[in-house]
Specification:
126 residues; mainly alpha; two-stranded antiparallel ribbon
Length: 126
């Protein structure tokens, strides 16, 4: 992620960027194993392992019901399976835990800024 200018969205994502990347690598490794077995995104659901399905094919079949067509998720996965869900859940928990760890720091910063502002207002008021 390249730094262009500061934004809260950039900062919030930057705190867990390494976990997103690690999760993406694990999911890609899982899908590479399936590709080595000769399965592609156009493979019928019956030929995939139990619980697996092709996200692009599922999205194309739901196109009539939804206006927004989602070919791949945020991790660019072309399949969905119980293993995918386990990996995303594991990293989702890690991401949530890391973001919770930032709350005391943010509260401290906000308290410090509020204290400085009250001090300034006391001098300005007098």
């Amino acid at each position: 992620m390249a730094f262009k200018s500061f934004s809260w969205k950039w900062w919030w994502y930057g705190q867990v960027e390494d976990l997103y990347n690690e999760c993406g690598k694990k999911l890609q490794e899982l899908e590479e194993k399936e590709k080595q077995k000769g399965h592609e995104w156009i493979t019928p659901k019956e030929d995939l392992p139990n619980g697996w399905y092709s996200v692009p094919l599922e999205s194309l079949s739901l196109k009539k019901r939804r206006k927004k067509l989602t070919i791949c998720g945020p991790y660019m996965c072309i399949w969905e399976s119980p293993e995918h869900v386990k990996i995303r859940s594991l990293y989702g928990g890690k991401i949530f835990q890391r973001r919770l760890n930032y709350i005391p720091h943010i509260i401290g910063v906000i308290g410090g800024l509020a204290g400085i502002a009250s001090l300034i207002f006391q001098f300005v008021k007098d």
